[in-house]
Amino acid sequence: MSQSVHMSVLLDEVLTALGDIKDKLVVDGTFGAGGYTRAFLEHGARVIGFDRDARVKPYVDAVSAEFPDSFQWINRPFSEMAEGLADVGVEAVDAVVLDIGVSSMQLDEAERGFSFMRDGPLDMRMSIDGRSAADIVNEDSAEDIAHVIWLYGEERKSRGIAAAIVRRRAEQKFERTLDLAEVVERALGGRRGAPVHPATRTFQGLRIAVNDELGELERALEVSEAVIKTGGVLAVVTFHSLEDRIVKNFFAERCGKLPSGSRYAPEVKAANDPTYELVTHKAQGPSDAELARNPRSRSAKLRAGRRTAAATWSEQTVSGKPSTNKVRS
C-alpha cells in the first residue's frame, strides 16, 4: 500500500485550485489509494471520501488510523454523493474533487482485468455489480461492440475489431485480458513499432461502458452543484477527451455561457444565473517534473470552478426564474 506507487496526478495544481482548506470539509469523490485524501488531511481539511470499489478498504483503514477524527469513507459511487452525505448528516461541503477514470491501483492489479499488459480475468468492473467486459464481447452483437469501441474508445477501426471479436468468440469465448488484446492487435495488423498498444482504445471503450463512466461523471457534476457551499470549489481531473469535453461544457454552461458550436459565432448567454465562476480559465496539464516522475499523467487535465450564490441549475429551471439557494452558505 505504498503511497509512492499510487501517485496522485496534478496534486499541486488541485491544491492551488482549492486554496486554503484548513478546517474546511472536502469531498474526495474518487478515494482510490487515498493520495488526494491524505494530502487534504495534511493541509488541515476534514475529508469525506467516496469510492464504489470496496477493495480500497485497506487504504481506507490506513488513512482512518492516521486521521481518525477528520476522515470518513462512504462506499458509494460519487454520483450518489448527496445521498451519502445525507446519511452522515452533512448538507453542504466546501469543496468536491473528482479524479475521473481508472486508478493506477486498479491498472496494476491483473485480477481486476483493466490492463492489456497484464493477464487477468476480463472483468473491468470497478464494483462487483453489473456486466463485465467479458459479458459485452461474448454476448453483444458486432454492431453494439463496434459502437462501444468507437464511441467510448474513439477507435476508428472499431468495426474491424468487432468483427474479429465475433469471429473468434464463435470458436472460443473470451475469458482473459491478454487473449482479447492479442485478437485486437491482430485485427489492427500488429504493433509495427507503435508507441501506444493497439488495444488501448478498445480496452478504454469497454471499461467506460462497463462502468458507465461518462454517465457517472455527468451525474456527479450535477450533484456537486447542489452540495457545494457558496465560495466552494469543484475541481475535476480528467484523462481523455470525452471526459474533458463533458467537464469543459459543464463549466461553460454553468458559468453563464453556452458553446455556440462555431468558433466564428459568439457564445450564447445562458438563461439561468451562473452557478460557477472559473478558477482555471483553461485546462491545466502536468508539469515537466510530474511527467518525468509519472508518465501516466501525460493526458491529465484539471478544470475547476467556484460556486456562486445562485440556486442550482435545475432549481432555476423549475422555478422559471433565478433565485438564491438557501443552503449555499
Automatic annotation (TrEMBL):
It comes from the Bacteria. It is found in: Cytoplasm. Its EC number is 2.1.1.199. GO terms for cellular component: cytoplasm. It catalyses: cytidine(1402) in 16S rRNA + S-adenosyl-L-methionine = N(4)-methylcytidine(1402) in 16S rRNA + S-adenosyl-L-homocysteine + H(+). S-adenosyl-L-methionine binds at G34, G35, Y36, D51, F78, D99, Q106. InterPro entries: RsmH, SAM-dep_MeTrfase_MraW_recog, SAM-dependent_MTases_sf. Residues 282-329 are annotated as: Disordered. Keywords: Cytoplasm, Methyltransferase, rRNA processing, S-adenosyl-L-methionine, Transferase. One of its GO terms (biological process) is rRNA base methylation. One of its GO terms (molecular function) is rRNA (cytosine-N4-)-methyltransferase activity. Residues 311-329 have a biased composition (Polar residues). Residues 295-306 have a biased composition (Basic residues). Its main location: cytoplasm. Specifically methylates the N4 position of cytidine in position 1402 (C1402) of 16S rRNA. Belongs to the methyltransferase superfamily. RsmH family. This is Ribosomal RNA small subunit methyltransferase H. It comes from Asticcacaulis endophyticus. The gene is rsmH.
